[in-house]
Amino acid sequence: MSSAGKELVERGLDFIRKLDEYAGLKRRLVLVKHEVTTNPAYGKVPSERTLNEKLRLGIINLDKPPGPTSHEVVAWIKKMLGLTKAGHGGTLVPR
């Protein structure tokens, strides 16, 4: 594996470790390696995505406060981020 490939793998594993740490998980990661060339047009490590890519391809995890409706919160997000499309999944009922 090239040094650039090894660096990409390490960055990907570092991202997964950070997610696990945030979630309080203690997993043992096993890496299966294959020497392949991947076209960058088909994706990249999430930490390398631009803000626009994260907004276009991502999810905003929101703990909705009591008061505003789910529809209102989606409208605010669309306005704040200049989006034409946005929606919500599940219910955004406050605890």
Summary of the model, kept short:
The chain is 42% helix and 0% strand. With 95 residues, it is mainly alpha-helical.
Question: In terms of topology, how is this protein built?
Answer:
Layout: H1 3-23, H2 51-57, H3 70-81
Describe what you observe in this structure.
- The chain is an all-alpha fold and 95 residues long.
- The protein has 2 domains: 1-49, no CATH class; 59-95, no CATH class.
- The chain has helices at 3-23, 51-57, 70-81.
- The chain is elongated, with a radius of gyration of 18 Å.
- The model has no long low-confidence stretch (mean pLDDT 78).
Rounded to the nearest angstrom, the distance between the terminal CA atoms is 49 Å
- The helix tally amounts to 3
Q: Give unreliable regions as ranges.
A: none
Number of strands: 0
- Computed over alpha carbons, the radius of gyration is 18 Å
- Mean pLDDT score: 78
Helical amount: 40-55%
Shape: elongated
Largest sheet: none
**How many individual domains?**
2
* Portion in beta strands: under 5%
Order of helices and strands: HHH
Class inferred from helices and paired strands: mainly alpha
Descriptive tags:
95 residues, mainly alpha, 2 domains, 3 helices
